[in-house]
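Two proteins, back to back. First:
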Amino acid sequence: MDLQEFVAHFAEQFEETDASVFTPQTKYHELEEWSSLIGLSIIAMVDEEYDVAIKGNDVKSSVTIEDLFNIVKERA
């Protein structure tokens, strides 16, 4: 599992935010476009791309994209 690939998949869930904004250290809750709907898209993307089940609390409790990646990696 590759962190940069995860960041790219994560960025694809956002329609209006430029992909260059996304790094492992991005605090995604602070992004203007962030919403609970995008949170659901992230959960679906993780399930589809990595076959890992995460919950809303995982998305909520993670601060950066890398935090969320580490949860996914742990469960893979």
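And the second protein:
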Amino acid sequence: MSAKDECEVLLGSILPFVQELLQKYKEFYPVGAVMDNDGNISFTSCKEESEHPESQFIIDALTQIHKNKAEKQLIKASAIAWNAVIQDENGNNVDSIVVSLEHKDDYKVKIFERYKMGLFKKIQFSEITAVVGNTDIWPG
């Protein structure tokens, strides 16, 4: 499999999980997942210092955990997902799931999936868009 294919497999694990969290709780804290060298996927977590930590604290902690695993060559792909408000092409604020995907073979992408509350608090997800991501786990 290519690096892109492996990141898509990782996305296929983490995205449904955070969608389910949103459906159930209407929010979620940042979540991480990694693919090891054998292709196995596992979710990662960090120890929070407070009952309601800031999302950026969790994102930074997950990034460091994934970076440490990458330095030890234990993983080949990383995903970190969080809830964000982004601006759409018309300048409107839109709720979105953001997933940062990165692969050791220099593949990086950031995925955005917009959503909105529908009738009876049911969440409606829209199309997924992608942009070139950051190099946070495997510095170039």
